[in-house]
Amino acid sequence: MDYDLIIVRYGEIGVKSPKVRRRFENKLISNIKRKLKCEIDINQGRVFLYPENFNEACEVLSKTMGVVSFSPAVSTETDFNIIEETVNEYVENLISEGSFSKENSFAIRCRRVGTHEFSSHEMAGFCGSVVVKATGAPVNLSNPDFELFVEVRDNKTYIYHEKIQGIGGLPIGTQGKVIALLSGGIDSPVAAFLMMKRGVEVIALHFNNYPYTGKSNEKVLKIVDKLNEYSPTPIKFYAAGYGEYLKKCIEDAPIRLTCVLCKSGMYRIAEEIAEKEGALAIVDGSSLGQVASQTLPNILATRYPTSMPVLSPLIGMDKIEIEEIGKKIGTLDISILPAPECTAVPQYPETNAKLDKVIEVLEEIDFDAEVKKIVSSLEDGES
Ligand SMILES: Nc1ncnc2c1ncn2[C@@H]1O[C@H](COP(=O)(O)OP(=O)(O)OP(=O)(O)O)[C@@H](O)[C@H]1O
Fold it and tell me: Is there a domain that residue 212 lies in?
């Protein structure tokens, strides 16, 4: 099919006040433009894209936050004779591509914006009769095999047959920045993705537990690369060397508390980076009860030293639900690549941490000084 343009629909942006809406629309357009060189118009709640390569454009739109659905379309003038010609040509192309035949029942779905001497119902009836005349296919308005969409907007009319689903959400960059704790496991990439979908710019922070895990950051960098497919700009990546701090926790604190102290340190360091980067929250992949560190007492104890909000978008999800999202967005395949387990995890990790005891231990290990040390030696850079 020789398309002229792609019609892009966005959802929640449409219900904002005009000022906010304009800002969100501009962000959506600039995000698309960062990934795709093409002319873009915006009009009456729709974005119109005029790409050179339609496959590439569809690929970009399917990974752009804020896009609810999109349709490659042909455009024509709002004139019955020209519409008849265009519908005939469109249907001919569909038949030769094998996507429609006279055996398929069909319906015309018409929308109309502007002032015209016909109703959308009349236009649908007209286009339906054109298709019947050309193909002999039966009309079925309630349960058709095939739908052809005719969208009349003032003096322009658009014809398309596909509504390709996008991710939805809000354009990245409309909701500020967060620091996402990215482990290389299954959950944290999904958590980061869900926050990106709500319009935040994510800065990734990984803790390298070497020598208690492998030395390489390769796996987590692959995950960042995958998340980059959904981001208009490359995600900034920080890697913190965490082995020395873990050694201190193991040697100088009750062994059962290692995971609690490990997580507390992550949040505190994330908070320091957030302040430097102008981020207003921390995101992690906690899911209640999934592992020892994710019980309610431990969540309270680990977050205590941090005053910044820690957002856990997976907190109420089951592992299967999380894995399904990971699969859909392409991070799961990377997350399940083999990697050494962390050997700093004690045999019996604390699942019922007592806050006053944790506070006491944090003082004993001079937590703040440890955090400072790690922050000052951070490696940062774009992934
Ligand atoms: N090495 C790490 N670097 C950065 N963040 C981490 C690291 N380890 C854990 N986290 C953060 O803490 C969250 C909870 O980690 P935990 O190890 O308790 O659970 P998990 O189910 O193994 O998480 P994941 O599947 O994301 O690895 C992770 O989702 C992630 O956000």
Answer: yes
